Amino acid sequence: MSRALHDVANGTLFGVALNYQGLLNQRIAEFEQAPYQKPPVKPVLFIKTPNTRNGHDRAVVHPQGERLQPGPALGVVIGKNASRVSVENALEHVAGYTIVNEFSLPEDSYYRPAVKAKCRDGFCSLGPELVARDQVANPHQLSLKLFVNGELRQQNSTANFVRNIPRLIAEISEFMTLHEGDVLITGTPEGRIDVLPGDTVEVEISGLGRLVNHIVAE
Amino acid sequence: MKHARIRFEGEVHLVHVEEQNAVRLADGRLLAEDQVQWLPPATGSMFALGLNYADHAAELAFKPPTEPLAFIKSPGTYTGHKQTTWRPDNVAYMHYECELVAVIGKPARNVKRENALEYLAGYTVCNDYAIRDYLENYYRPNLRVKNRDATTPVGPWVVDVADVPDPSNLKLRTWINGELRQEGSTKDMIFDIPYLIEYLSSFMTLQPGDMIATGTPEGLADVVPGDEVIVEVEGVGRLVNRIVSEAEFFSARNEA
């Protein structure tokens, strides 16, 4: 685990759900029905509580009797407080980027907050390091790959975001400050898979490295 | 005993609260309630309960839940006693919610309800404001409704567990500009504090400083800039807040 990353990214972990076009499109017909009534208007946000923090090369506990799914995501680390910032100025508030594996139980429904699915101990791995903003030429052109025991199981590109990073920062900071040290988890693409105790799970994002975790039984 | 966090002359202090809400600093100085800036007494995650009073669930036309409906708040939404909260421009309905809050005192994992109170640091009060115009049916109640800057007053202090012998029989009351608008009792909670600690700790570790906001009874009403809103939980505390406009809030913050 990179000490520098965990010293800088020490704030609240905010997740964005349904931020990949493919994932949103898969469910859009369902989202016209009850209980949703209409597709989301604003970013769909959730919070990963501090007990979920985990790091590179660490274990993730597979809860007994549940299904566990990794969530490969690009993490945006906030570098200075962002309150009511414009799309144009949003990236100035970013310190850099890291890889996030946002573990979750499967989400059949998005209607109620997913505390039980997402807030278990160690369910948010970050790392291996913080890559400074100016080291990433275009954060909206990064490939995301998920490997389980060396086999590629899920892949996508940040080019497929529903909302790009400046737009997320602008829309979120309209009502709540993104503080220095907060991490914005920009979403997990469609095609989440199950993992089991004994599996080695790796998330690779181009230019950011590979974040490794080991699934262990409870 | 009552424990608070305050800011005085630029420094944050942990204090004891004495008669007439005077605060005693560690160095022995005694300061009046209005001499200090009151901060939220705890800064962990807040697990807030929706629909945890049967009468309130009925008021919102919901069936009472069979499993706790918990949502999470992060520290940026907290503000202290006697501070201001902003009402956004052009909204139709912003309401208060008076709630008893249990504050966690030590890490809690797989705790049974019989032992739950051993894990508490004490109790406080919160006003879990909501802007209903922004409700969406995704992770409802969504963060835009419930996790806005400075829109969850918490405090004024944490009172010791021993000083609240029966937390399941406390009167909750809210006043707007001195007029009583909400009245209920914690005896009408659907899921009580020991149950909520058992439930949450069954799948995660609750941390010291985390808070469980236990929901609000019926009696909601709109609040507008200029209103003084007081929420009180009998035997725990009386938390004062003033509503300001969006422009007033952000211009004051930019000057600070």
UniProtKB/TrEMBL annotation, chain B:
InterPro entries per UniProt: Fumarylacetoacetase-like_C, Fumarylacetoacetase_C_sf, HPA_isomer/decarb_C
GO function terms (MF aspect): 5-carboxymethyl-2-hydroxymuconate delta-isomerase activity; 5-oxopent-3-ene-1,2,5-tricarboxylate decarboxylase activity; metal ion binding
One GO-annotated biological process of the protein: 4-hydroxyphenylacetate catabolic process
Domain Fumarylacetoacetase-like C-terminal: from-to ranges: 46-244
Keyword Isomerase attached: yes
Keywords of this entry: Isomerase, Metal-binding
NCBIfam families to which the protein is assigned, alphabetical: HpaG-C-term
Family according to the record: Belongs to the hydratase/decarboxylase family.
Protein name according to UniProt: 2-hydroxyhepta-2,4-diene-1,7-dioate isomerase
